[in-house]
Amino acid sequence: IINPMTSYEYTNNKDDCFSVWEKEQVPCPKYFVYKSRDEFEAKRMDYPFLLRLNDGITGEDTYLIESDTELEHSFNAVEAAFNAKQRIHTERICVQFIDTSIQGGYNTSFRITVAGDNVVSGYARISDDWLAITKQFTEEKKDAFVEQNKRISSLIKNNHDKIVKCVHTLGLHHVGIDMITDHDDNLYFLEVQPFYFCGNMNRTSPPKF
């Protein structure tokens, strides 16, 4: 199954995904794009929220904002990143923060793979902080890892069609989805990740044959 290149933007820019998902009633965080401090202030949401670039990966240039003090520092940091890292339609975005904390003080997120009309896999990622990405997994998290991987099995079973719709509304066929849930198991889709990246330099190394 090959993804059409006409939909490449959705594998690159999170705000483009959010825009489609909102229209199609696919669950995702609230967000807005801003181009200046005045526009940010006119649109701003209540704390906590995230400031970031729309095309970063693994938490790159992403800041959790919970106070005015953090906002002042992080707003300038995102501005600096925006000026230094122009890629394809790079934008500054503000995104609703969803609390994914679980028992034990850890946080979690999920990577789900969809192919065609089927969810073919899913696994949980456990971390010490709110940025739950794969590389933060350590030995002491193994019990939570097992528990959350049982949880994702149930989440997929109970939300299969909603997960597939997340992909199809973007015109894609075969991708990995980053998803989180709140404490009531409400889903929030964050982004899609194919097995290649379009438009970003120095993100991945080409395969060696």
Textual characterization of the structure:
The protein contains four helices and eight strands; from the N terminus they run αβαββαβββαββ. The protein is an alpha+beta fold and 209 residues long. The chain starts with 13 loop residues before the first helix and ends in a 16-residue tail after the last strand. The protein is globular, with a radius of gyration of 17 Å. Strands 1-4-2-3 form a four-stranded antiparallel β-sheet, with helices on one face. Strand 7 and strand 8 (187-193) form a beta hairpin.
* Count of DSSP strands: 8
Order of the strands making up the biggest sheet: 1-4-2-3
Helix content: 25-40%
Indicate the radius of gyration in whole angstroms. Answer: 17 Å
What's the SSE pattern? HEHEEHEEEHEE
Largest beta-sheet characterization: 4 strands, antiparallel
Count of helical regions? 4
Secondary-structure content class: alpha+beta
pLDDT < 50 stretches = 196-201
Structure summarized in a few sentences:
The protein is α+β, with helices and mostly antiparallel strands. The protein has helices spanning 14-23, 37-43, 68-84, 142-168; strands at 31-34, 49-53, 63-65, 92-96, 107-115, 118-127, 174-181, 187-193.
Task: Please tag this protein with its features.
four-stranded antiparallel beta sheet, 209 residues, 24% strand, globular, alpha+beta
Give the arrangement of secondary structure elements.
Blueprint lengths: L13 H10 L7 E4 L2 H7 L5 E5 L9 E3 L2 H17 L7 E5 L10 E9 L2 E10 L14 H27 L5 E8 L5 E7 L16
Antiparallel strand pairs: 1-4, 2-3, 2-4, 5-6, 5-7, 7-8
